[in-house]
Design a protein that fits this description.
The chain is α/β, with parallel strands linked by helices. The protein is 29% helix and 29% strand. It has six helices and eleven strands. The structure holds adenosine-5'-triphosphate and zinc ion (ZN).
Length: 224
């Protein structure tokens, strides 16, 4: 990769990818996005895009592999806690909180569960893809639990007898309802954020960022 081009990691395909591409387009970045490619080069600016799983984005920024990244605060905060626990570097800065990717990480139980508060989950199994965010919340509540790590199909865990409750991302609540679950506690509210690596950038790259930021600001204001 060319060291002089600004590297931005965005989600390859998923809930953030369309909005990310729209954002870049709105900033005047002309992209040549061909499918199944890891890297896309902007045609009119010194910018290279890395198209990856959203879960990889915080680490790529924190390791300084890319200069910028767009990711949900949920994934960012989870990765941060995991890396801190493992003694890995976890520095970054938030350049801008964006106006898309809104969701919440919530606890939910089966409709027939007699839920009286987090203490009802004492000693229970909770399925989640966010064990660190969940543990932080439960520690604050003084409740001990067993976490069941699932990277998909979290919402079917109670019905499958794999867990007593779940901790999963919610936006409308339709998925929970379709699975006979009730949302009980919101433990984290999230939006997409634009983050930057902690390493000092060469002037040329910093200038590109300084050109992009006001454009992003302008785009967001226009949508308010
Ligand atoms: P990948 O293949 O990149 O790992 P994924 O399946 O983990 O994708 P998506 O479902 O595309 O991820 O969600 C990406 C991000 O979009 C989430 O981490 C979250 O920040 C945000 N998001 C917004 N609304 C929702 C929602 N209803 N459910 C899940 N994620 C949501
Ligand atoms: Zn993911």
């Amino acid at each position: 990769m060319d060291q002089n081009r600004l590297r931005i990691a965005i989600q390859k395909s998923g809930r953030l990818s369309t909005e990310c591409q729209k954002l870049l387009k709105g900033c005047g970045v002309k992209l040549n996005l061909r499918e199944q490619r890891l890297i896309a080069h902007a045609e009119n600016m010194p910018i290279d895009l890395l198209l990856v799983r959203d879960d990889d984005i915080p680490g790529l920024v924190m390791d300084g592999v890319v200069d910028l990244g767009v990711v949900g605060e949920n994934v960012l905060e989870e990765t941060l806690m995991e890396r801190q626990a493992q003694g890995q570097s976890a520095d970054y800065s938030v350049l801008k909180r964006l106006d898309f990717g809104g969701c919440r990480l919530s606890l939910a139980v089966a409709q027939e569960f007699d839920y009286q508060g987090p203490e009802s989950l004492e000693g229970k199994r909770i399925a989640t893809s966010y064990p660190w965010l969940l543990k932080r919340y439960m520690d604050r509540q003084g409740v001990t639990f067993k976490s069941v790590m699932l990277n998909g199909s979290v919402e079917v865990a109670p019905r499958a007898g794999v867990a007593d409750a779940i901790c999963d991302l919610v936006s409308t609540g339709a998925t929970l309802e379709a699975n006979g679950l009730v949302e009980t506690d919101v433990i984290f509210r999230s939006k997409a954020v634009l983050i930057q690596s902690a390493s000092t950038l060469p002037t040329a790259k910093q200038q590109v960022i300084d050109r992009l930021l006001p454009r992003i600001q302008g785009l967001q204001q226009a949508r308010e």
